[in-house]
């Protein structure tokens, strides 16, 4: 996901970078309900 896509669905650039870093590091990702709803509505 690009930063442009993230801004379109309502995620901040900083939040996107944190999520990508957790994915790269292999850590568990715990999404809040608001973030999860934003991601699933756009798919």
Fold topology:
Blueprint: H1 3-9, H2 13-25, H3 33-42
- Mean pLDDT comes to 90
What characteristic shape results from the CA principal axes? globular
Give, in order, the helices and strands.
HHH
Could you list the spans in which at least 5 consecutive residues all have pLDDT below 50? none
Biggest sheet overview: none
Oligomeric state of the chains? single chain
Beta-strand percentage range:
under 5%
Question: What is the CA-atom radius of gyration, in angstroms?
Answer: 10 Å
Q: Determine the structural class based on helices, strands and strand pairing.
A: mainly alpha
What would you say this structure looks like, in words?
- With 43 residues, the chain is mainly alpha-helical.
- 70% of the residues lie in helices and 0% in strands.
- The protein contains 3 helices and no strands.
- The protein has helices at residues 3-9, 13-25, 33-42.
- The longest helix has 13 residues, at 13-25.
- It is globular.
- The N and C termini lie close together (12 Å).
- The model has no long low-confidence stretch (mean pLDDT 90).
